[in-house]
Write a structure and sequence with these properties.
It contains 15 helices and ten strands. It has about 350 residues and is α/β, with parallel strands linked by helices. It has a six-stranded mixed sheet with strand order 1-2-10-7-8-9, sandwiched between helices. The protein has a four-stranded parallel sheet with strand order 5-4-3-6, sandwiched between helices. Bound molecules: the ligand Cc1ncc(COP(=O)(O)O)c(/C=C/C(=O)C(=O)O)c1O. The ligand Cc1ncc(COP(=O)(O)O)c(/C=C/C(=O)C(=O)O)c1O binds next to helix 4 and helix 9.
Amino acid sequence: INNGILQSYKAYLPLTDKTPALTLHEGNTPLVYLKHFSNKLGIELYAKIEGANPTGSFKDRGMVMAVAKAKEAGSNTVVCASTGNTSASAAAYAAQAGMQAIIVIPKGKVALGKLAQAVMYGAKIVEIDGNFDDALNIVKEMSETMPVTLVNSVNPYRLAGQKTAAFEVIEQLGSVPDVLAIPVGNAGNISAYWKGFKEYNEQHRCGLPKMFGFEAEGAAAITQNEVISTPETVATAIRIGNPASWELAVQAQEESSGIITSVSDEEILQAFRLLPRLEGVFAEPGSCASIAGVIQQCKENQISSGSKVVAVLTGNGLKDPQTALDQVEVQPVSLPNNAKKVREYFQT
Ligand SMILES: Cc1ncc(COP(=O)(O)O)c(/C=C/C(=O)C(=O)O)c1O
């Protein structure tokens, strides 16, 4: 039974006997072998399906930790900036904890499913005519001047919770992967995974993976080593130009002898279309940067054949139905309400 990460990994988490036992039964997500991609690329490729978390993204791991600690500290309001998934998760865990969530999001740049979640979970939603980085500056200022707790990944409890995914990957794979491929936006998740792998290695001497982080080409601050003031990508989840965990991410890349590079929107959309069709796994565009990156790095001979690779699929495909419908060339065919006519259609 999955009782959530606070219980499953309490030995690794900064809990006290006063930390509320908050959970929506996050974590323990599937690790799926991608047969088609593995055969095509000559590697053993697995997907970590973080879209199977309660609010449909990896954010739940960090948010359950951050919200529980906020409640323990006596706070009754959490605040965050978001490209969508952080706000959905903050709103859900705040509701579960009987707290209020305030979220600040870039107007018109949050995928439909994420907005629906934030609304339904009862968050107070502010849309600004700016981008995620502007929104993060606003909520940082609010958390310094109002009695609210900031739960973006600058909050260390977020990274503590999110590192549990690394433990699961090792336990599920039965070993440390040679490469851990992951999308990079605000760079908290790549930093959290590396923290988790190092801690687990200290305990179990299991070795360490190479960390391969992938930014969207139009929002590739770390890759280009400069702040991108107007980040643009179809993968709105990672449309971030000034990653808050920049230094931690570079440290993860250097210490693991990995890479942080970028993938184009076309490479992302190619993976976005192929993954569900060929493997039965549907992940939102930002998540597919990890698959696009593995394909790219295999082509550039940066991943030796037979390597064990885990690609983190950070968010469920249902989050962004509009991009799915815009991108798919196969449209439903409309036929009369008549069994014979429909049968004939398929027999011709
Ligand atoms: C699906 C998906 N995939 C990858 C990322 C990048 O993770 P980080 O590099 O740890 O930021 C995000 C990030 C989303 C937000 O930053 C937010 O929701 O505000 C995401 O939603």
